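Issue: ligand-bound run for zinc ion - logging full I/O for the record.

Environment: standard queue, default settings, no custom constraints.

Inputs:
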Amino acid sequence: MAKLHSTPNNTDFNWKGWEKISKLIPERGWVWQNYRTGTSSDKSEWVEQQIYYDMLYTFRLGALSPYAKALKEGKLLGTKCPKCGDVTFPPRVNCWNLDCKLEITDWVEMPLTGILHTFTICGFAAKSALKKLPFVLAYVLVGESKTAVANILKIDQPWHTETNMPVIVKFAKEEDRVGNIIDFWFEPDPKWTPSPMNAEKERIEKLCQPVYEWVRILNR
Ligand SMILES: [Zn+2]
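Outputs:
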């Protein structure tokens, strides 16, 4: 246990004024807003529910804070175990390798390149991302990392996404960075060209069409 980083406790956080701040935010948490059954006879068995969970979460990064600070500077910081040499991004404070007995890792700057491990093409999303549909959520191995990180892959034709394709990391403009995963995204390596259309790509292209149409309606 001695190797674990110290956990910040509440005594170093100033809770004064928190009550006032919390009153400005509609802090309702997971509340069932609506529970109703259908009105027309044929739908009388239907139960309709709506959930409001647009609440404020506050969390601390603790020993992982350098990762967030680096994002603001346009850098990706991963970690490397001094014992076994495993590199991980996103970073891990302690090595995951059981033989290393929670060895504290070192910070390493990651290259802004990676390999796409797996992906999904999203046809629906949270409200804030609806107009970006359809988009690709990619799991990428950045540099030598043994773990993948999920983020958006910006690609003009989502159906051309391929496993093992090389990708690059792109950062948002400095003034837009917030020290969070949304500060960066992936794009295909400019040197990469997709393989020709095939049955699977055609199937996915077809599936994307109603999504494009729906987003056009949203944008009207
Ligand atoms: Zn290790």
